[in-house]
Write a structure and sequence with these properties.
This protein has helices at about 5-40, 45-60, 65-70, 75-90, 95-120, 125-145, 150-155, 175-190, 195-215, 220-235, 240-255, 260-270, 275-290, 315-340, 350-365, 375-390, 400-410, and strands at about 300-305, 310. It is mainly α. It starts with a helix and ends in a 5-residue tail after the last helix.
C-alpha cells in the first residue's frame, strides 16, 4: 500500500472517530422521537421516523457492536442467536426470509440506538419522559374528544383507539390501551415525595389515561395495569402508594355507580373470549412441530367461528413455541436470562422491569411473535424496556460509559 493510500485511510478513520459523538447524540434524540411516535403516529408514518432517527445514526455506531460483544458477550450473542434463529425459520415456514432478516436487523439497530441513549441520559430520565409524553398525549386526544361534535357517549359506545380522535396514532384499541397504561405506571412510580403541585399533575395524568383506557374496552391491558400497580404498592411499601391505591379503588367503585359505566363493564364482561380455545389450538400446532416449530410467517389459521380465523396464537409466549418450537423457546428464555440477570437487583432497572413485566402481561393475552416490525406494540412492550434495562444496569457508570469505551478500544471508535 502506498503512502497516499495510507494517508487517505488514516483521514477516513479520523473522520469516522470524530463522527461518533455526533452519531451518539443523533441516536439518543432519535430514539426519544421514535418512542414518542408510539403515542401519535400510525405505523406507516412511524416507520419513516424509525429509519431516519434510529437506523441512520445506528449505522454509524455499528463498530460499537463488536465492542459490546467483547464487554458483554453472553447477552449480545444470545440476542443474535434468537434473532438469527427466528429469521432462519422463515426457510421452513411460510414467510419471506428477507422480511424476517430485515426485522432482525431493525431490532439490532434499535438496540444500538438504546445503548447510545443509555450513555447520554440518566436512568431516572425515562419515567419522567414517559409521563411527560403521556401527559401531552392525553391532553391532545382529550381535547379532540371534548371539542368534537360527537358526544362522549358515542366514543364510549365504540372501542376507542388513538386514530378515532383526529385520525392520528394507533388504530387498534388494545394497542392504544397498552400504550396508555405506561404513563400511569410512570406517574405512580414518580408520585412519592414530589411537591403537591406535581402530585396533582400526576394524579390528573393517571385519571385521564385510565378513562381513555376504559373506553378502549381492552380487558387484558387493564388487568395487567392493575396487577403491576398492586405489585409496586406491596413491594415498595410507601405510604403514598397505599394512599393512591385506596383512592383508586374508591374512584373505580364510585364510577360503577353510574349506569352507563356499569353497563359498559357488564357488556364487556359478557363478550365471549376465545383465548383459551386459541391457545389450545396453538398448542396442538406446537406438538406437531415441537422441535423447530412451524417457522416464521406460518399463519396459525385458527377458526373461532365458521367464517373468522385468527393468524397467531394471541400470546407472544405461545407464539414463540408455535413458530420456533422448543429450540426457539430455549433461545428466548436464554436471551431473557442473560439480558436481565443484572436488572433484577439493580435500582436503575426497577422501573424498566416494571415496564417490561407490564408489557409481557399484556402480550400474554394478545401478543404476536417477537420478531416483528419495529413499530409494532410488541417492540414497545418488550424490546424497548428489555434493552433499556440491560444497558442501564451494566457494570460501568452510565455517565462515562462513552469515555470508558474510548479508553479501552480507542482504535474501534
Amino acid at each position: 500500500m502506498n503512502i497516499n493510500s495510507e494517508t487517505m485511510l488514516e483521514h477516513a478513520r479520523s473522520f469516522w472517530i470524530r463522527l461518533q459523538p455526533l452519531a451518539l447524540i443523533w441516536a439518543t434524540i432519535g430514539f426519544l422521537i421514535y418512542l414518542t411516535g408510539f403515542f401519535f403516529l400510525k405505523s406507516s408514518k412511524h416507520m419513516v421516523f424509525f429509519y431516519a432517527m434510529v437506523i441512520l445514526p445506528a449505522l454509524f455506531l455499528t463498530a460499537r457492536s463488536r465492542i459490546l460483544i467483547q464487554l458483554d458477550a453472553k447477552a449480545i450473542i444470545s440476542l443474535l442467536l434468537f434473532l438469527g434463529y427466528f429469521s432462519a425459520s422463515a426457510l421452513w415456514g411460510s414467510g419471506e426470509f428477507k422480511e424476517a432478516l430485515k426485522f432482525g436487523f431493525c431490532l439490532f439497530f434499535l438496540m444500538l440506538s438504546i445503548e447510545a441513549c443509555s450513555c447520554r441520559l440518566r436512568p431516572e430520565f425515562i419515567p419522567y419522559f414517559v409521563a411527560t409524553i403521556g401527559g401531552f398525549a392525553v391532553c391532545f386526544y382529550g381535547s379532540i374528544l371534548i371539542l368534537s361534535d360527537t358526544a362522549f357517549a358515542t366514543f364510549a359506545a365504540d372501542r376507542f383507539a388513538f386514530f378515532n380522535a383526529g385520525g392520528l396514532g394507533n388504530d387498534n384499541p388494545i394497542d392504544s390501551a397498552i400504550i396508555l397504561g405506561l404513563p400511569v405506571l410512570a406517574a405512580w412510580w414518580l408520585f412519592p415525595g414530589r411537591k403537591w403541585l406535581i402530585q396533582i399533575a400526576l394524579i390528573t395524568l393517571m385519571i385521564s389515561c385510565c378513562i381513555l383506557m376504559f373506553i378502549t374496552k381492552s380487558r387484558g391491558p387493564i388487568v395487567a395495569l392493575c396487577v403491576m400497580l398492586l405489585i409496586i404498592t406491596f413491594f415498595r411499601r410507601n405510604r403514598s402508594d397505599f394512599t393512591l391505591l385506596f383512592f383508586g379503588i374508591l374512584f373505580i367503585t364510585s364510577s360503577l355507580l353510574f349506569e352507563n359505566t356499569a353497563s359498559i363493564v357488564a357488556d364487556r364482561i359478557e363478550q365471549p373470549d376465545y383465548r383459551l380455545y386459541i391457545w389450545c389450538q396453538a398448542f396442538e400446532q406446537f406438538k406437531d412441530h415441537w422441535i423447530i416449530g412451524r417457522g416464521f410467517g406460518n399463519n396459525a389459521r385458527i377458526f373461532i367461528t365458521d367464517t373468522h380465523a385468527v393468524s397467531h396464537a394471541h400470546s407472544s409466549i405461545f407464539e414463540t413455541f408455535r413458530v420456533g418450537g422448543i429450540t426457539g423457546a430455549i433461545l428466548f428464555f436464554t436471551m431473557l436470562f442473560f439480558m436481565l440477570k443484572r436488572s433484577i437487583f439493580h435500582p436503575n432497572g426497577t422501573f424498566l422491569l416494571i415496564w417490561m413485566s407490564y408489557g409481557l402481561l399484556c402480550l400474554l393475552t394478545n401478543g404476536r411473535l417477537l420478531l416483528i416490525k419495529p413499530t409494532a406494540i410488541e417492540v414497545f412492550s418488550f424490546w424497548i424496556p428489555l434493552f433499556l434495562a440491560h444497558f442501564y444496569t451494566r457494570h460501568k457508570s452510565n455517565i462515562d460509559c462513552q469515555w470508558q469505551l474510548k479508553k479501552r478500544f480507542p482504535s474501534d471508535l
